[in-house]
Amino acid sequence: MPLIHRIDHPHVDGVRVGAADRKGNWRLTSTCIVYRIGDACIDTGPSNEWRLVEAFLKERKVKQALVTHYHEDHSGNGGHIHDAFNANVLCHENSHSRLKNGFAIEMVRKLTFGQVSLVSTEHFPDRIAVGDGIELQPMHFPGHSDDMTCFYEPERGWLFSGDLYIASQIKYMTREENVSQMIHSLRAAMQLDFQELFCAHRGILSDGPAALAKKLDFIVSLREEVRYWRDKGLSVRAITRQLIGKEDITALVSGFSMSKRNVITACLRSLEEEEEA
């Protein structure tokens, strides 16, 4: 499969890889971006796109791979990068075992992105030097996953956000996503002094804080709508149809591991946590 496109930025290299049709059309959920800054890459791309990722990284070899979170489209080539470039692979402590020993991947995700190349990983230090005087600060922002880590560059006002953002509105979630953590993480990220947001799926956003604010507003508002309809006595299924609509092919092909219902269920869990506190 040909490379989808390169990332055009004065100081950061990047490539988008993943599934595209013959006309080059692609979707956010079936592609992802590998960024390179100095001697480090941020995320590793899916294993079934290793040859494209390898060719990109050979242009300027990396010494370290920083994994934002364990999902296979972000961590898939960790072992390949370690073997090909003798690079250290770093991730949050919650996923050392996942990337060393493997984890369950739903069939549709396996078909889209492939398996994960296993690797022994290291902890993130407080600051990661990547060359040219640039240091990245790992920031643990769970919600999308329990290991979700962003990388903050305060001198240049950059935030490499992994899957913290993706889009300002949410129609689907996986079962593991945590709305309470997501709200807390978005609020914490918005306190950082940055401007450019490097999203692993959306690309580069010039006004990162505004993008995060839109997503936060959407989630908080949606949760309040869920509260309203729950208190009216509607079922989870009825609330889902009322606020997001009927389930579609996304839920069916994923065995409902990715669904609209999961969004409502996650909001209900968040409300219960808030009310019990």
From TrEMBL:
<dbReference type="InterPro" id="IPR036866">
    <property type="entry name" value="RibonucZ/Hydroxyglut_hydro"/>
</dbReference>
<feature type="domain" description="Metallo-beta-lactamase">
    <location>
        <begin position="31"/>
        <end position="201"/>
    </location>
</feature>
<dbReference type="InterPro" id="IPR050855">
    <property type="entry name" value="NDM-1-like"/>
</dbReference>
<dbReference type="Pfam" id="PF00753">
    <property type="entry name" value="Lactamase_B"/>
</dbReference>
<protein>
    <submittedName>
        <fullName>MBL fold metallo-hydrolase</fullName>
    </submittedName>
</protein>
<dbReference type="InterPro" id="IPR001279">
    <property type="entry name" value="Metallo-B-lactamas"/>
</dbReference>
